[in-house]
Design a protein that fits this description.
five-stranded parallel beta sheet; about 15% strand; Rossmann fold; 10 helices; alpha/beta; about 300 residues; four-stranded parallel beta sheet; globular
C-alpha cells in the first residue's frame, strides 16, 4: 500500500485493509515509542504542528512521535500569537507553513477545515480534529487500543457513552467499528444523541445499533467508550447545564458490567469516570493515551514515504 504524500482527513478515506496496515506498522513502532529502541527514521524531516484549538494529548503525542523518530517540529499552539491576529487567512497560513516543513498536523474548531487546508497544501495534511467533524488519528489509536486490550477488533460489543452529538471522536469511531462488523450501543441524553446520518450509515453497513438513554443495560458490553459532555461545543449554555454530569462510571456501575470490561476515554475527563477506577485493570484510558504515539509514528512514517 502506498501512503506517501497522502492526506489523513477522515477515517472514511481508509479501507479496512488500510486501517489494519496502519495498526500493523504501529505495532512495529512500539519499542521506539516506549524508548526501548532509538530511531532516526525521520531524521531531516520537519513536521509543522498548527493548533488553532487547545490540545494536550494530540499535540504532544504528535510531537513525541516525530521526535522519537528523529525528526523536528515547528508550529504554534496559540494562534493569537501568529499573523492570523493581523487578519491573515487560513489558506495563506497553510501556504506559508508548507514552505518550512514536510508534513502538517492541524487542529481547528471549524468542521471541514482540514479538508480545506488540504486543497491549499502540497505537503500531506493530517487532521488533528476539526470541530465536531472528524478525528481520524484518535479513531486509529482507539482501534489500536481495542486490538491490544482485547486481542482483536472483531467480535467485541461496544457502548459509546456521553456526548454523541458533538463528539468528533465517536463520529469517526462508530464508522470504523461498523467497518469491522461490530454491534454498538449509543448511550446519551436525548439532546445529545448520535446524528441520524451516522446511525443510518452504520446500520446500512450491516451492524446492530441500539439507542439508549441510561447505563442500566451494559452487562453484555466488552468495551465502554466514555466521552465528556463538551461545554465548548454548546451554542446555548442552558442546554449544557441541563445535560452536564448525566453519566458517571464508578465502582458501583462496574459491578453491573463484565469482569473484563475495558473502559476507554479520549480524555480530558471531567467527572464522567471516577478516579477510583484508575487503578483497576479495566481502566485503559491512560494506556489508550500512550497508544497515540506509536499510531501517529506509523502515520507520519507512512505519509512521508519512509515505510510502506
Amino acid at each position: 500500500m502506498n501512503f506517501k504524500g497522502r492526506d489523513v482527513i477522515s477515517i472514511k478515506d481508509f479501507s479496512r485493509e488500510e486501517i489494519l496496515h496502519v495498526l500493523d506498522v504501529a505495532e512495529r513502532m512500539l519499542p521506539i515509542a516506549e524508548g526501548k529502541e532509538k530511531s532516526d527514521l525521520l531524521h531531516g524531516y520537519i513536521m509543522a504542528s498548527l493548533f488553532f484549538e487547545p490540545s494536550t494529548r494530540t499535540r504532544l503525542s504528535f510531537e513525541a512521535a516525530m521526535k522519537r523518530l528523529g525528526g523536528n517540529v515547528i508550529g504554534f499552539a496559540r494562534p493569537g500569537t501568529t499573523s492570523l491576529k493581523k487578519g491573515e487567512t487560513m489558506a495563506d497560513t497553510i501556504r506559508t507553513a508548507e514552505s518550512y516543513c514536510d508534513v502538517i498536523v492541524m487542529r481547528h474548531p471549524q468542521e471541514g477545515s482540514a479538508r480545506l487546508a488540504a486543497d491549499f497544501a502540497s505537503v500531506p495534511i493530517i487532521n488533528g480534529g476539526d470541530g465536531a467533524g472528524h478525528h481520524p488519528t484518535q479513531c486509529l489509536l482507539d482501534l489500536f487500543t481495542i486490538k491490544r486490550e482485547k486481542g482483536k477488533i472483531e467480535g467485541n460489543s461496544v457502548a459509546l457513552i456521553g456526548d454523541l452529538k458533538y463528539g468528533r471522536t465517536v463520529h469517526s469511531l462508530a464508522y470504523a467499528l461498523a467497518l469491522f462488523g461490530i454491534d454498538m450501543k449509543f448511550i446519551s441524553p436525548p439532546e445529545l444523541q448520535m446524528p441520524k446520518e451516522v446511525v443510518e450509515e452504520c446500520r446500512e453497513m450491516g451492524v446492530e445499533i441500539n439507542i439508549e438513554n441510561s447505563l442500566d443495560d451494559i452487562g453484555d458490553m466488552d468495551v465502554l467508550y466514555v466521552t465528556r459532555i463538551q461545554k465548548e461545543r454548546f451554542p446555548d449554555p442552558e442546554e449544557y447545564s441541563r445535560v452536564a454530569g448525566s453519566y458517571r462510571i464508578d465502582r458501583k456501575l462496574l459491578e453491573k458490567a463484565k469482569k473484563d470490561v475495558t473502559i476507554m476515554h479520549p480524555l480530558p475527563r471531567v467527572d464522567e469516570i471516577s478516579p477510583e477506577l484508575d487503578s483497576t485493570p479495566n481502566a485503559a484510558y491512560f494506556r489508550q493515551t500512550f497508544n497515540g504515539v506509536p499510531v501517529r509514528m506509523a502515520l507520519l512514517a507512512l505519509v512521508l514515504g519512509v515505510v510502506e
